[in-house]
Automatic annotation (TrEMBL):
It comes from Ascaris lumbricoides. Its main location: membrane. It comes from the Eukaryota. Keywords: Ion channel, Ion transport, Membrane, Transmembrane, Transmembrane helix, Transport. This is Ion channel. The lineage of its organism: Eukaryota, Metazoa, Ecdysozoa, Nematoda, Chromadorea.
Length: 384
């Protein structure tokens, strides 16, 4: 079990450390700059306001406007000070859009929590735009950080989703096996076919069991129902933390987030960032898991349809006929070679046997000649 979980834990820990390190670096690069930008924007707003008021004061005390009708004077002042007013409004709107939009109490800042939320949503390709790097080095680091971090995060999410989906498949397999055993005990006369026995046998590999999608199929609407129910639950949790949002707005934000769209039109309060992040990450993992389950169920059917469509192509049929003839010719050649090898082996065995017989005959005749010579020598010695 430990060896099975160690790769998954290592991948999760690596991705988490990567996010934490990225949050620290963004905080160091952008934290001080954000304070400077805030001070600069506030100064620009104050200067623009002063220019607008000076222009109004100058026009109101101009000698040519002293005896003018009040309504006409009002229209003239509005017309003459329009450029200064528009400049002032643009300054206020830019500052509000950058620092205050969506935050009734606290403006965003590059503290660690906000930085971590930024890195997590950036690496999951949501990208709300709550905060964004302003400096050149911050933007450069963001590009390099995403080039490495987005693949790592996607692999981690896919790995967790695959681990959960395989756990679901194994659980479904165990329940199915218990059901089949109960069915066999209840109806002993009804046997199970050999394919099902082979599938639920103890000796079969787990991966082969998981690949048999015909017997462990989930209806697609059930799979996506999990995502919908999780979205409703996540919207309820976010709604409880974001009191200013209605449940419909929370549900909209949740589904837009777990589908990694992230429009950025709704912004959670800084105190609720971690809760929102946990809900979103869980939804992304669940969505990926459902995609994996549906993909594994219908992958073989898609391949089957592709083969059926491919088999109707006349050029494909011609290529298949040629390939079949080549396979038959190769099989015939191998058969002839095998027969030749068998024939050569038989001939060699026969020649070796004959050669051995000749040697034995020669060895026997030599012994008999020696015996005859010894007998003749013995007889001659006796006569003497």
């Amino acid at each position: 079990m430990r060896r099975f979980l160690s790769p998954h834990l290592l991948l999760v820990v690596s991705c988490g450390l990567y996010m934490v390190i990225g949050a620290w670096i963004f905080q160091a690069l952008e934290g001080h700059n954000l304070k400077n930008v805030k001070a600069e924007r506030s100064s620009n707003i104050e200067k623009s306001s002063d220019r607008y008021l000076d222009r109004i004061w100058e026009l109101a005390h101009s000698p040519e406007y002293q005896d003018m009708d009040p309504q006409k004077l009002k229209d003239t002042l509005r017309k003459e000070s329009k450029s200064q007013f528009n400049e002032y409004v643009d300054m206020v709107f830019a500052a509000h859009r950058t620092f205050r939009h969506g935050y009734e109490n606290d403006a965003p800042s590059w503290d660690f929590l906000t930085s971590f939320f930024f890195t997590a949503t950036m690496l999951t390709s949501i990208g709300y735009g709550y905060v964004a790097p302003f400096t050149f080095y911050g933007r450069l680091f963001g590009v390099v950080y995403c080039l490495i971090g987005i693949p790592l995060t996607l692999v981690t999410v896919a790995n967790i989703a695959k681990f959960i989906s395989e756990t679901v498949f194994r659980l479904h397999y165990e329940l199915w096996r218990l059901w089949m055993r109960w069915k066999e005990r209840k109806s002993p006369g009804l046997g199970v076919d050999e394919e099902s026995r082979a599938m639920f046998g103890e000796s079969e590999d787990e991966q082969e069991i998981l690949d048999r999608v015909k017997l462990i199929r989930f209806p697609p609407f059930v799979v996506f129902l999990f995502v919908f129910l999780y979205g409703l639950l996540g919207a309820y949790i976010i709604h409880k933390n974001e009191q200013q949002w209605s449940y419909t707005e929370s549900m909209y934000f949740t589904f837009i987030s777990i589908l990694t769209v992230g429009f950025g039109d709704y912004r959670p309060a800084p105190t609720n960032l971690m809760t929102v992040l946990l809900v979103i990450m869980g939804g992304i993992i669940l969505t990926t898991m459902c995609m994996d389950v549906v993909g594994r169920m219908y992958l073989k059917e898609i391949h089957y349809i592709g083969r059926k469509l491919k088999s109707n192509n006349p050029f494909y049929l011609i290529r298949e006929a040629k390939a079949r003839r080549r396979r038959q010719a190769m099989a015939s050649l191998l058969a002839q070679l095998a027969r030749g090898m068998i024939f050569a082996h038989r001939n060699y065995s026969e020649l070796a046997y004959r050669k051995e017989r000749v040697k034995e005959r020669r060895r026997g005749s030599h012994v008999r000649d020696d015996v005859k010579q010894w007998q003749a020598f013995w007889r001659s010695s006796q006569e003497e």
